[in-house]
Design a protein that fits this description.
The chain is of the alpha/beta class. About 55% of the residues lie in helices and about 10% in strands.
Length: about 220
């Protein structure tokens, strides 16, 4: 059954955050807002097991406590509970982290500078099938889509003159993997990955790695 404004009468939230004080404080705030905190932990492995079992209404991941990139964890959480929207909170407010998180599958993004009330708002949005993010990053998203629309339709993957190794990196970049994760996947050094990414950016004329992957991918399917 649904309650006010299309909200289910019972909304369960699972919190994955490294800081115990943060977990407890956020849990208290969510309970006061009428949500049920069905579980909370600092350990990703334990969290994924409990998420698989509990299938919460919303999964909250703390971005600042999960190091520079948590795309793999976001993807794992989505696999553990396919029907549960994933929200990243306490994350860095920069476009690359934001786009990487979107590609991994988040539907809500709350920066580390946001008030706790924004977490409550983003949970409500996620349950209603809506998305919420900081206005500045929303603008960056619009600009990103506009840039992709302006890619010349005559472009072709071969025109970028990417090497075989550079083409191998593209799908991994699209997954949101970091240089370290790509290096481990391809069994090469992190510095080698960094150099390849730099050359890809120069060849595609893009400013960030995700835009480069999108540019090559778009030009490929347009021509095929």
């Amino acid at each position: 059954m649904s309650g006010e404004h299309g909200m289910p009468e019972k909304v369960s939230v699972y919190i994955l955050a490294a800081n115990r004080l943060l977990r407890e404080a956020l849990g208290h705030i969510l309970k006061r807002a009428g949500f049920e905190v069905t579980g909370a932990t600092e350990e990703p492995r334990v969290g994924l097991e409990e998420i698989t079992e509990l299938q919460p209404s919303v999964i909250l991941l703390n971005g600042s406590a999960l190091q520079a990139d948590c795309s793999s964890l976001i993807i794992a959480a989505r696999k553990a509970a396919p029907e549960s929207p994933v929200v990243l909170f306490g994350a860095r407010e920069d476009p690359e982290t934001f786009f990487r998180s979107i590609r991994a599958g988040v539907v809500g993004y709350v920066s580390s500078e946001s008030p706790a009330s924004d977490v409550v708002a983003v949970v409500r949005c996620a349950v209603r099938g809506e998305a919420l993010c900081p206005p500045r990053l929303c603008r960056e998203l619009f600009k990103y889509v506009a840039r992709q629309a302006s890619i010349p339709k005559s472009a072709n993957r071969s025109n970028y003159r990417l090497t075989r190794r550079e083409q191998q990196l593209l799908p991994l970049i699209s997954e949101g993997l970091t240089n370290k994760e790509i290096a481990a996947r391809l069994i090469i050094s992190e510095l080698t990955v960094k150099n390849h990414v730099g050359r890809i950016l120069r060849k595609t004329g893009t400013r960030d790695r995700l835009s480069a992957a999108e540019a090559v991918e778009t030009s490929s399917w347009i021509c095929e």
